[in-house]
Write a structure and sequence with these properties.
Largest sheet: 8 strands, antiparallel, barrel
CATH topology of the largest domain: Porin
Shape: elongated
Strand order of the largest sheet: 1-2-3-4-5-6-7-8
Number of strands: 8
CATH class of the largest domain: Mainly Beta
Order of helices and strands: HEEEHEEEEE
Length: 261
């Protein structure tokens, strides 16, 4: 009788146990889902996917265009900035080699073209009226030197719905300048001008824009520093020296040579 009663009670308890187990399972699943959602939210916050719900932003992971073990040849043109009495335009050639993605060297040569600017013309008019003097002016005819380039940044940007890859580099170098110094214009008073070759230190920065595996565009800012006599070493003139500096902006195109693998 007792066994029959326990059997009846056991049979009557089974649905309740099943219900409790089902309830526990549902609660457990809810807790797990909540925890998973919380972690997923944290992960979304970490990778900033909430900024780009349509997944149109891509992370730059690897270099598409490489410089290491490549030689480069550039043709550039630009203007000198900061010359007191001269308009300056120049053409420049560069050839270089990159040892790795960070460091490379270049040799350069440029030819400069000088003409009187408006400041000099105004001074010349005042001199013609008896109210002014003609300053000594140093014209830089050409420059050459060696440059060490350091490119710490490689990046990409969207330009007209196309991705443009570029390197941002900094430059330190040493070279020489062929100059001439005198009053007025050399074409009017050539005998009053003297020639000088001066040592210069070069500092600069710029960007290399990779158009393809072979072709590049380049924007370059290069400043030169040199010490020279203020009056160009003229007989009877003071021999005081001063530190001079000017910079040039150049834009050009280049070719890359070497194995891209």
């Amino acid at each position: 009788m007792k066994n029959k009663l326990l059997k009846v009670l056991g049979m009557s308890m089974r649905p309740k146990v099943r219900a409790r187990l089902l309830l526990i399972a549902l609660v457990s699943l809810g807790v797990v889902e909540s925890i998973s959602t919380a972690f997923a939210a944290d992960d979304d916050d970490y990778n900033f996917s909430w900024l780009d719900p349509e997944k149109k932003i891509y992370v730059l992971q690897n270099r598409k265009y490489r410089k290491a073990n490549h030689a480069m040849l550039f043709a550039l043109g630009g203007a000198g900035i900061g010359e007191t009495y001269r308009n300056v335009y120049q053409v420049q050639g560069r050839v270089g080699y990159w040892f790795n993605e960070d460091f490379g060297f270049e040799a350069f040569y440029n030819q400069r073209f000088n003409s009187a600017n408006n400041s000099y013309k105004a001074l010349a008019q005042a001199e013609g009226a008896g109210a002014g003097t003609s300053p000594y002016t140093r014209e830089i005819l050409s420059q050459m030197g060696l440059l060490l380039n350091w490119a710490p940044w490689y990046a990409k940007m969207n330009v007209f719905n196309s991705v443009l890859y570029f390197d941002w580099y900094f430059t330190l170098g040493l070279g020489t300048m062929s100059t001439q110094v005198g009053p007025n214009l050399q074409s009017d008073y050539p005998a009053l001008w003297s020639q000088e070759n001066l040592l210069a230190v070069y500092l600069g920065t710029g960007q290399l824009f990779h158009l393809s595996e072979t072709w590049m565009m380049r924007l370059d800012f290069l400043e030169h520093f040199y010490s020279a006599e203020i009056y160009g070493g003229k007989v009877g003139a003071p021999t005081d020296k001063s530190l001079f500096s000017n910079f040039a902006i150049n834009l050009g195109i280049g070719l890359k040579f070497g194995n891209n693998k």
